[in-house]
From TrEMBL:
InterPro entries: HotDog_dom_sf, MaoC-like_dom, MFE-2_N
Protein name, per record: 3-alpha,7-alpha,12-alpha-trihydroxy-5-beta-cholest-24-enoyl-CoA hydratase
Any GO BP: fatty acid beta-oxidation
UniProt cross-references to Gene3D superfamilies, sorted A to Z: Hotdog Thioesterase (3.10.129.10)
Domain Peroxisomal multifunctional enzyme type 2-like N-terminal, chain residue ranges per copy: 20-147
Sample GO molecular function, one term: 17-beta-hydroxysteroid dehydrogenase (NAD+) activity
CDD domains named among the record's database cross-references: HDE_HSD
A Pfam family this chain is assigned to: MFE-2_hydrat-2_N
Domain annotation MaoC-like: ranges: 164-280
Length: 301
């Protein structure tokens, strides 16, 4: 029987992951989160075309990615009952379009909800550019360990994400998710068969393969870049949200945005066909452009 030890997990030294990637990988990630679908426009072109190439900020989620580390025996986590609960990225500098990065993974919080209610675990990954040792991003992921409650906790406190405003969104952006979207996205490093194999999805209790939660997160990042940042990756500073329902490849998603302050945006991701909220309690922080410095940056659709 597994016996997760919170003290052991919280006191582990950082796990170091070195990751080299190319411009092709940068373009493949952008295609994986839906960029380039509209071939008549040029808004997405800088993310999928080598001339003037830019990296989407949310690519930080797949850089120096440690894989599904919770299933490794030494952690003694009931990995079959792990769910991805929340994701947060803080972007300190624009990502290089190619190069080598170093990730330093540590566990900084475990919240015990009780023997029958599971536990929350937050892992933090610091991503550095190996060329100049600059910190590029801080990536935090909260996992819901449904089978590991009642074993204690510790570390930093977890602050709940606030709800989105109770009013009509200021902007809505609708994206069509291609039927093969998960098959493209998984080429950026997440090879969980749940997102490709009908048999694996059925064994997990789903009728068909699901879109990766981090792929949906990438769609949300693109919406905020387009609506609030003029598609300038340097202006997106924070993106965080709570996963509440899966998206199926081939569905439409609607990103709802609320302007809360000159630099703060709340968001939800909705699956209109099923009236499901895929990402809730979303929060983004952006830097103002020169044309909007000192005033509220208006969202545009």
């Amino acid at each position: 029987m597994l016996a997760m030890n919170p003290d052991f997990l919280l006191n582990l030294p950082p796990r170091i992951i070195t990751h080299s990637y190319t411009r092709r990988d940068t373009m493949l990630y952008a295609l994986g989160v839906g960029a380039g679908r509209d071939t008549t426009g040029e808004d997405d072109l800088p993310f999928v075309f080598e001339n003037g190439l830019r990296a989407l900020p949310t690519m930080a989620a797949v850089l120096a990615y440690p894989g599904f580390w919770q299933m490794e025996p030494r952690y003694e986590i009931d990995w079959r009952r792990v769910l991805h609960a929340e994701q947060s990225c803080e972007f300190h500098a624009p990502l290089p379009v190619e190069g080598t990065v170093r990730g330093e993974l540590s566990i900084d919080a475990i919240v015990d909800k009780g023997a029958e209610k599971g536990a929350l675990l937050r892992a933090r990954r610091l991503i550095y550019n190996e060329a100049d040792q600059r910190l590029l991003a801080t990536v935090r992921q909260i996992s819901f360990l449904r089978g590991d409650g009642g074993k204690g906790g510790g570390g930093e406190a977890l602050v709940p994400l606030p709800p989105v405003p109770d009013r009509t969104p200021d902007t809505k952006i609708i994206y069509a998710v291609r039927p093969e979207q998960a098959l493209v996205y998984r080429l950026s490093g997440d090879y969980n068969p749940l997102h490709a194999s009908p048999a694996a999805a059925h064994d997990a209790g789903f009728a068909r393969p699901l879109l990766h939660g981090l792929c949906t997160y990438g769609f949300a990042g693109r919406a905020i870049l387009a609506a609030a940042c003029g598609n300038d990756p340097a202006r997106l500073k924070v993106l965080e949200g709570r996963f509440t329902a899966p998206v199926h490849p081939g569905e439409n998603i609607e990103v709802r945005l609320w302007q809360e302050s000159p630099q703060d945006i709340a968001f939800q991701v909705i699956v209109p066909e099923r009236e499901k909220i895929a990402i809730d309690n979303g929060r983004a922080r952006v830097a103002l452009g020169e044309q909007t410095a000192g005033s509220t940056a208006r969202l545009c659709s």
